[in-house]
Fold this protein.
Amino acid sequence: MEKKYYRTRDLSLAAFLYSVKDLSLFGTEKEGRQVYFIFTPPDEAEELTRLYWANKAPSIQPRLLFQSLRSMKDLIFSRG
C-alpha cells in the first residue's frame, strides 16, 4: 500500500519541511502528549528528510525558516 503522507514529531525537521515550497502541511495529529506534523507528498518529504539528516538539505532563507518554526509552535500550542 502506498503511503499518502509523511509524519514527523521533530519540530526542527517539521519547520524545515514546511519551508520547502513543494511540500504541503496536511495537518497535525496528537498521540498522547506527542504532536505529529503531516506532510504531502510523502516521497519528497522522505527525500528531504534524508538530505536534512545528511547535512545536504537545500538552502532556506533564515527568515522563512524561523517563520515556519513559529507556525509549527503555534500549531502545537493551539491544540490545547
